[in-house]
Design a protein that fits this description.
10 helices, six-stranded mixed β-sheet, globular, single chain, about 35% helix, about 400 residues, alpha+beta, three-stranded antiparallel β-sheet
Length: about 400
């Protein structure tokens, strides 16, 4: 048996492997999955990409992979036990070109994700993201994020840097976006199944996804430092879902930033002994969450689209569930979710409107989402107010 594994290379949704003799091997990587004339192309071609991935995985004789096998199957697996590695380039993004890495011993297999940065934007962010994922993975249990196993860089032809990190692949989970159902011309959540089939969700299923996403983001919110998973976007496919007989399960797969929405250092210093500040910051977090939860791009790449009102009530429910999952805040007289519910009860519609405008002021004002938010803000605040009243009257 050879000491080094056999490698093969694939492009997503193609069953046959590609080689250095394939036409696409010598074609440059697109810099976006939106294949338009202005999407741009990388100066790194597919062959350079696959060779760099192989070099990264072979470092230390595939020791990074064998360690995960040993932990997963609770027995010693040596690097020489790794017999086969299949690398499949999944998609192209502004920051990363992620690959699915299927690894095999004689009897077991494990799939990984390898996030690969070739653009300057990706290279600037990938190291930070890796450390955010590692930090949150160490600090929070249970976890709704992928585990990460190692980070590094490879020098390619022309001394170009290619950065990447290996992480957990969520098997059976798929990306989803708002799309128009041709059967009734209504906008619904569409799941991008790996099998190429596409599944439109019912309103009840969509509400459940919004609830779970809100719960996850609230779970990772730090009530003392105000740090939160920020810069997340539905359009970028940052959440994935699995639907089976047990129901729906949601994960978040990226943490580009983990920072407060407002960076007032004086407030941060005093947050540990000021319950009013903690509750006000929670309200701002919730309002920001409720707005961002409604933003997507049609089919992930089209025009900015605003989700319907079912997202609002579900976001509120998920937010309160996320608060209940967190350790009790000692400064508050009761449970986290109950105390915040009381705090919401004294907020007027005008309070919600004013604070929502303050939240919008933190957005990049030239972003295409901002006009859409402003167009729908009054309706959004009305829906929020009704959802809060409904929650309080239960």
């Amino acid at each position: 048996m050879p000491d080094r594994p056999q490698f093969s290379y694939f492009i997503s949704h193609h069953t046959s492997p590609i080689t250095k003799h394939s036409e696409i091997w010598h074609q440059p990587l697109p810099l976006s999955r939106k294949f338009s004339n202005n999407s741009g192309q990388s100066t790194i071609d597919h062959g350079v990409y696959f060779n760099a991935v192989r070099v990264f995985l072979e470092k230390s004789g595939c020791e990074m992979i064998s360690q995960v096998f040993s932990q997963r199957f609770k027995k010693s697996v040596k690097p020489t036990d790794i017999r086969e590695i299949k690398i499949c380039l999944e998609k192209h993004g502004e920051f990363y070109h992620p690959a699915r890495v299927d690894t095999f011993t004689g009897h077991q297999n494990i799939s990984f994700v390898l996030n690969v940065a070739v653009s300057e934007a990706g290279i600037r962010s990938i190291n930070t993201e890796y450390h955010h994922l590692k930090k949150l993975g160490d600090e929070f249990s249970p976890s709704f994020l992928p585990r990460v196993y190692g980070y590094g860089q490879v020098r390619s032809v022309g001394n170009r840097r290619i950065h990447m990190f290996l992480g957990q692949w969520f098997e059976g989970y798929n990306e989803f976006h708002v799309s128009k159902d041709p059967l009734d011309n209504k906008y619904k959540i569409l799941v991008w199944n790996d099998s190429k089939s596409r599944l439109f969700l019912s309103p009840q299923q969509s509400a459940e996804i919004y609830r779970q996403m809100a719960r996850i983001l609230t779970y990772y919110y730090n009530v003392e430092s105000f740090e939160q998973i920020s810069a997340w976007h539905h359009a970028a496919g940052d959440f994935v879902i699995r639907i089976d007989t047990a129901g729906i399960d949601t994960k978040i797969i990226t943490v580009r930033s983990y920072a407060p929405l407002f960076s007032n250092l004086a407030d941060l210093k005093n947050s540990h002994n000021d319950p009013e500040l903690i509750l006000q910051a929670l309200l701002i977090f919730f309002l920001n969450l409720s707005i961002r939860m409604r933003l997507d791009r049609l089919d992930g790449v089209g025009d900015v689209i605003w989700a319907d009102n079912l997202a609002v009530q579900s976001t509120l429910a998920g937010f309160l569930e996320g608060l209940a999952l967190k350790p009790r805040i000692p400064l508050l007289p009761g449970s986290n979710d109950q105390c915040f519910s009381y705090y919401l009860a004294v907020c007027t519609k005008e309070d919600l409107q004013d604070l929502s405008k303050a939240v919008i002021s933190t957005f990049h004002q030239q972003a295409p989402e901002v006009p859409v938010i402003k167009q729908h803000l009054n309706e959004h605040v009305e829906a929020l107010s009704q959802a809060i009243d409904g929650m309080l009257n239960k």
